[in-house]
Amino acid sequence: MSTRACVVLLSGGLDSTTCLAWAREQGFECHTLAIDYGQRHRVELEAAARVAAAQGVRDHRVVRIDLRSIGGSALTADVDVPKGRDESAMAADVPVTYVPARNSVFLCVALGLAETVGATELVAGMNVLDYSGYPDCRPEFVRAFEAMANLATRAAVQGARFTVHTPLMQLDKAGIIRLGVSLGVDYAATHSCYDPSPAGLACGACDSCRLRAKGFRDAGIPDPTRYANPL
Predict the structure, then answer these.
(1) Are 188 and 200 in contact (CB under 8 A)?
(2) Do 110 and 5 touch, CB atoms closer than 8 A?
(3) pLDDT tens readout for residues 154-182
(4) pLDDT surpassing 90 at residue 93
(5) For the chain, which domains are there?
(6) Which residues are within 8 A (CB) of 147 and not within 5 positions of it... i.e. 6 or more apart?
């Protein structure tokens, strides 16, 4: 198995796009994986394809998993996406935009793809600072998944060791943006909004939009996001 191949979970958002640029900078041969899970912000799948093409990825895949069938989230059910919240409100509790077990499911699919293409490295955009209270974005979760991957796979039984890289884990949004810009990322190609307009424009008011906009302000870098209602 190649130790230089990796699978990057690529949503088409700011964080995962930065992760892809980081992985390429590390010299990995990148296979990218987007998950069509029934999310209301399906425009992100188009963004993922754009980003993969722009960064020269030769193997970009979309896997469909219908998480709408279990619901439980504002992203997969007919539940309003919270708008206009400040950072203290975002951090007060796990928000309704949390998708039950999403990162566990996504990483499992990425792990399966890694075994298929002969990779031992997974790359994902989890972040413990700007994470909106999601429990599956914490370092403890990532390490636990890594331990599971090294118990539950044929490749591991045969001697391979899987590593889950989370290069953004300790960066705030401004730091992530600065890193991406240093790596040549075009953030105009990305999408972060949880509740975009029919034309795919960002709402500017959901948690993801507000964190993204603040990151650009704090980084001192112009925000290329197209907003339905300019901030």
Answers:
(1) no
(2) no
(3) 999 999 999 999 999 999 999 999 999 99
(4) no
(5) 2-219 (3.40.50.620)
(6) none
* Two tokens, residue 58: 């030769």
Per residue in 29-45, pLDDT (tens digit) is 999 999 999 998 999 99
Of 135 and 196, which is predicted with more confidence?
196
Does residue 84 register a pLDDT over 50?
yes
The confidence band for 1, taking pLDDT boundaries of 50, 70 and 90, is very low
- Which residues make Cβ contacts (< 8 Å) with residue 208, sequence separation at least 6? 13, 97, 132, 192, 193, 194
- SS3 sequence of the chain: CEEEEEEEECCCCHHHHHHHHHHHHCCCEEEEEEEECCCCCCHHHHHHHHHHHHCCCCEEEEEECCHHHCCCCCCCCCCCCCECCCHHHHHCCCCCCCCCCHHHHHHHHHHHHHHHHCEEEEECCCCCCCCCCCHHHCHHHHHHHHHHHHHHCHHHHCCCCCEEECCCCCCCHHHHHHHHHHCCCCHHHCCCCCCCCCCCCECCCEHHHHHHHHHHHHHCCCCCCCECCCC
